[in-house]
Amino acid sequence: MTAQGPAHIIAAMSRIDRVAGRGIRERDRRLRTPGRPRPSRREIELHEAMIARLTRVHQVTFRPIDWARIEADGPVAPMISRDAVSSVARQNLANYRPSLVDNLLGLEREKRRELTHRVVEAAKADAELYAQAKAQAAAHNRVLALAPEVRAMNAEAIAGVLKANGADLALKDVVEGFRIVADGKSRLIGQLDLWEYDALPDEACASSGYVPVSETDRGQLQLANACAVALRAAIEILQIAPVATVDVVARVCRPGGLAEADLEPVLHVQVPAEAVAKPHFHKLDATEAAAALGARIDWSPARGLGPIRIDDPFLARLTAPREAA
């Protein structure tokens, strides 16, 4: 069997972006001063939300695509008219007849102005609702068109459905890259590029001020993030692809590295659909769930994630460092 892919859901980080990101983080660290004002409530909320995204992004309900229903429905058009809301407002304006009180008090002009304003606002709501319905119909039709290729385990088709289903939006702010590879007609591999260690938060926002994050806690965050995004990637793939299990391999750029050859595999886990479909799965801690699934990880509190050896010949070739062309 031959491999298909890689098919990208989230493009890998470029060398230029990696250098720029490190420069920005270093600049921001130099600008920190002991006398900084305490973080605002908004800053604290944003920090907490970021940590939650990094470590609990896997906590979603497993909802596999109903391919039979999609194919039975066939191509669809937007299921809402262009004037679903504004038609009533326009009718109210057309039917308005000033009452005796309106004439006596000179209210006709003001009431017509108010009814016209309602028509304008309703038209705006119509445009938004129709655009949403049109986008939903277009997404359905794209997925429908790709259904035969998905069944045939075409990596590009599966990636297309993943994007139509929102997998790129689900992970783009917590990983550097996401792609899939098909090994023949029965096996899929998801490859993730994790945030490099330097990009992980090294200080926390609290009501008492900015608090440095210890290296131990930062290492724990790196581990939790790796497990959470690996599980979420598996969920996204298993919701779409006709496979019972998916392999997920996560890589991270070694400190100071820049090229593709500097990305090392640090996690490998096989995730069965049967496991993620269990009702309680979305409540599990990411690290514990990955361990229960037999994830291969080399991690210690002192240094965080380290490179792992992958014995599977296909995965070993897939994850072997390659020099940029």
Explain what the structure shows:
The chain has 325 residues and is an alpha+beta fold. The chain has 2 domains: 3-64 and 165-319, no CATH class; 66-148. Helix content is 48%, strand content 18%. It contains 12 helices and 9 strands. It has helices at 15-30, 41-56, 67-73, 86-95, 100-105, 108-151, 155-164, 167-171, 215-238, 273-276, 286-292, 313-319; strands at residues 3-10, 177-183, 187-193, 203-206, 209-212, 245-253, 263-272, 296-300, 304-306. It has a 7-stranded mixed sheet with strand order 1-2-3-6-7-8-9, with helices on both faces. It has a two-stranded antiparallel ribbon with strand order 4-5. A hairpin with a 3-residue loop joins strand 8 and strand 9 (304-306). The radius of gyration is 26 Å and the shape is globular. The chain starts with a strand and ends in a 6-residue tail after the last helix.
